[in-house]
Amino acid sequence: MRRSSPSRSLQPRTQVGTMSPAIALAFLPLVVTLLVRYRHHFRLLVRSILLRSLRDCLSELRIEERAFSYVLTHALPGDPGHILTTLDHWSSHCEYLSHMGPAKGQILMRLVEEKAPACVLELGTYCAYSTLLIARALPAGSRLLTVEQDPRTAAVAEKLIRLAGFDERTVELIVGSSEEVIPRLRTQYQLSRADLVLLAHRPRCYLRDLQLLEAHALMPAGATVLADHVLFPGAPRFLQYAKSCGRYRCRLHHTGLPDFPAIKDGIAQLTYAGPG
Ligand SMILES: C[S@@+](CC[C@H](N)C(=O)[O-])C[C@H]1O[C@@H](n2cnc3c(N)ncnc32)[C@H](O)[C@@H]1O
């Protein structure tokens, strides 16, 4: 066993990890400024990560599973509009969902109604909020394929889609990552063209997946690509590519995050001109 020598223990302790009060005071205005400036981001972090993780541990359920229980007891089956409002209510008053929310939802619904696509591809189903929005706005006979990589999340989404009254011919949920699924869409899922694509999975994968869709010739000229969260957390490489490659007309719809309108975000709307 090693003992500290008495002479050593009598020496004054080195001030590791402590800061003089004067230096700490000098930092105070900076800390206060950051806290005030980023208070919304801080609240978002607490609601969407810290509280969620704590509830996950306590309930041994995922947030999507807790949301589904709430929908089952509060929403009207067969009424997608009521299911969407119930999810919004739960997210605002109970637990914060990473869903699209009503403000962005309005933009999405308006664009789906305007474009009246025969076939839609959604990447990133989550709890099927945007899936239900799209399905509700589709013309009769259209088809929506939605891709979710997480099997447990997908199981909840599947139940919500069927609870809302959409059958498998109208809305098909594919479990897998976009990178694996896109190359198999034509052969395994008989999708030869997507007139509208919603990228809502992970902003840092948007560029890769857009290029995969181009490479597999899955978008006809005139197709619309919508990309959520392009400003927060942001998809700069995707936006840069879309603006500079010469194959897209781009437009940005500015919005805020659900319940955090002060956190600015946007949906990008691209119109594909074809391979050119
Ligand atoms: C922000 S949520 C989507 C929100 C959803 N569109 C809504 O508004 O209800 C992102 C989802 O994408 C899924 N995801 C992430 N990367 C993916 C990928 N490469 N392929 C498929 N799904 C992915 C995540 O598991 C998560 O459920």
From TrEMBL:
<keyword id="KW-0472">Membrane</keyword>
<keyword id="KW-0808">Transferase</keyword>
<keyword id="KW-1009">Hearing</keyword>
<dbReference type="Pfam" id="PF01596">
    <property type="entry name" value="Methyltransf_3"/>
</dbReference>
<keyword id="KW-0489">Methyltransferase</keyword>
<dbReference type="GO" id="GO:0032502">
    <property type="term" value="P:developmental process"/>
</dbReference>
<comment type="similarity">
    <text>Belongs to the class I-like SAM-binding methyltransferase superfamily. Cation-dependent O-methyltransferase family.</text>
</comment>
<dbReference type="GO" id="GO:0005886">
    <property type="term" value="C:plasma membrane"/>
</dbReference>
<comment type="function">
    <text>Catalyzes the O-methylation, and thereby the inactivation, of catecholamine neurotransmitters and catechol hormones. Required for auditory function. Component of the cochlear hair cell's mechanotransduction (MET) machinery. Involved in the assembly of the asymmetric tip-link MET complex. Required for transportation of TMC1 and TMC2 proteins into the mechanically sensitive stereocilia of the hair cells. The function in MET is independent of the enzymatic activity.</text>
</comment>
<dbReference type="InterPro" id="IPR002935">
    <property type="entry name" value="SAM_O-MeTrfase"/>
</dbReference>
<keyword id="KW-0949">S-adenosyl-L-methionine</keyword>
<dbReference type="GO" id="GO:0032259">
    <property type="term" value="P:methylation"/>
</dbReference>
<keyword id="KW-0256">Endoplasmic reticulum</keyword>
<dbReference type="GO" id="GO:0042417">
    <property type="term" value="P:dopamine metabolic process"/>
</dbReference>
<keyword id="KW-0812">Transmembrane</keyword>
<dbReference type="GO" id="GO:0016206">
    <property type="term" value="F:catechol O-methyltransferase activity"/>
</dbReference>
<dbReference type="InterPro" id="IPR029063">
    <property type="entry name" value="SAM-dependent_MTases_sf"/>
</dbReference>
<dbReference type="GO" id="GO:0007605">
    <property type="term" value="P:sensory perception of sound"/>
</dbReference>
<keyword id="KW-1133">Transmembrane helix</keyword>
<protein>
    <recommendedName>
        <fullName>Catechol O-methyltransferase</fullName>
        <ecNumber>2.1.1.6</ecNumber>
    </recommendedName>
</protein>
<comment type="function">
    <text>Catalyzes the O-methylation, and thereby the inactivation, of catecholamine neurotransmitters and catechol hormones. Also shortens the biological half-lives of certain neuroactive drugs, like L-DOPA, alpha-methyl DOPA and isoproterenol.</text>
</comment>
<feature type="transmembrane region" description="Helical">
    <location>
        <begin position="20"/>
        <end position="38"/>
    </location>
</feature>
<keyword id="KW-0531">Neurotransmitter degradation</keyword>
<dbReference type="GO" id="GO:0005783">
    <property type="term" value="C:endoplasmic reticulum"/>
</dbReference>
<keyword id="KW-0128">Catecholamine metabolism</keyword>
<dbReference type="GO" id="GO:0042424">
    <property type="term" value="P:catecholamine catabolic process"/>
</dbReference>
